[in-house]
TrEMBL record:
GO molecular function, one term: DNA binding
GO BP: DNA integration; DNA recombination
Signal peptide: none
Provenance organism: Caminibacter mediatlanticus TB-2
Family note: Belongs to the 'phage' integrase family.
UniProt name for this protein: Integrase
Amino acid sequence: MTLKEIRKLKWSGKREYYRIEQGLYVEVLKNKKVYRLITKKNGKQIKATLGNFDEKTLTDVKKLKDRILVAIKDMDYNKATEYIRKELGIRESKKDKELKSKKVKENEKFLLKNIIQEFLQTRTKQEQNRIRNYIIKLLGDKDVREITKIDIIDFFKKVRELNVNPKKTTYLTNKMATIKRLKNNLNLFYKFLYLQFDIEHNPISNLTMKDIENLLGEKYKVTHFKATTNLNDIQELYKKICELKTDKDVNVNTHKTTSIYTKYALMFLMLTALRNGTLRRLEWEMIDWNKKVINIPGAITKTKKDFRLPLTDEMLKILKELEKINKKQKGLIFKGRNNNMMSENTLNVKIKKLSNNKTTAHGIRSAFATILKEQGENPLFVEEQLMHIVENKVGQAYTRTDYLVQRRKLLKKWESLITVKTQKEEQKSKITFSF
C-alpha cells in the first residue's frame, strides 16, 4: 500500500486494519490514522503503535518496524514485548507489571539455592555442609529446570579447583571422592524434585563416574577402610566403649564426656554389625518389642530391601535404657545434636580414637565376618546379617527366608565373644564392692 492509497482511506464507522507490508498496518479510526506493528511470537500476537499518520513519515515507520523485527527475531514472546516497550518508550500497564512480578517470583522459586532448602533438611550435617560449600555456591543462581549436562561437567571442574577448607589436606588429595559424593547428592536432589514438583528434567541421570573421570582426566581412588580382625582388639574396643563417661553420668556436657546416644550407638553398632548410615536412621516405630526385632525399611538400607534385625539381650538392654530418656518412643533412636540425625563421622571418629586407629565403623563389619567364619559359623547366615547379596536374581526369587532364627543365634554368639572382657570387669567390680 502506497502513501497515496493510505491518504484515501476513510472512517467506515468501525475500526479497520489495512496491510501496508509484512508486519506493518494502518488502523483507521474516527478522527485519525495510526501505524501499527503486528507480529506473532510463540503463537501469541504482538501489537504495538508505531506512530500517528500525521506525525510520522511512512519511510520512518517502515525503518522502525524493520529494526524491531530484526531485533526480536530470536526472542520469545515475553522478551520481544519487553524490547518493543523499551524501544517505543511505552510504560508498562499495572497488569503487565503484576504478571512480570509474578513470573519473577515463580522463577526465583526454582533457583537451586531456594528450592534445595527443603531437600537440605533431609540430609546429614556433613552432607548439608558439602551441599552448601559446593552445590549451592557454584550452582545456586541457576534454574533447576534449565541446568544442562555441560553445566554439571563445568561444576565438577570447578569443584576440583575449589578448596573450601585449606586446613584439611583430604580436600586437596582426594577431590574425586568429594565429586562422587556430590554426584550422588545431585542425583538424590533431582529425584526429590521429580517427587515433589513433578520436574522430570535430570541433567545427571546418565552421567557415570567413568564419564566424569574421562572428562576430568583423573580417576577416583578407592580408599580402603582400616579394619582389625583380631578378637582381642575387638573385645578391648567394646570394653572401652562401655567405660565411656557420658553427659548423663556426670549430669553435664563437657569435652571430656560423650553423648549417651553416641555411646549406645557405638555399642549397638558393634553388636549388630549394621552399616553406619542404616544405624543412624533407625527409629522407635521400627521396633517390634513382642517379636524382639527391628523392622528396617528398604529406604534406609544400601540394598534397598527390607531387613529384620533380631535383638539379643544386650541390644534390648540398650534400647530399654534409651527408652527411659525417650519416653514418647518417636523419631530417631540414636540422636545427634539438637535431636537431629547423628553425623556420619561421629561414630567413625570415636571408633578410630578408641581403637588407636586400628579400625573404623565399617571395619567392625569385616571383623564380624572374619571372626565368626573362623569360628565355624555358616557364611550364608553371616552374609545375610551383613545385608550382602550372596545369590543371583534367580536364587533371590526362590529364597523365601531371611534366616531370622539362625541369625539371632549368630548374634548371641557374637555378643558373648565381644563382651567377655566387659563382663569380667563387671564381675571384678562386684567382688571389690563386696569387700
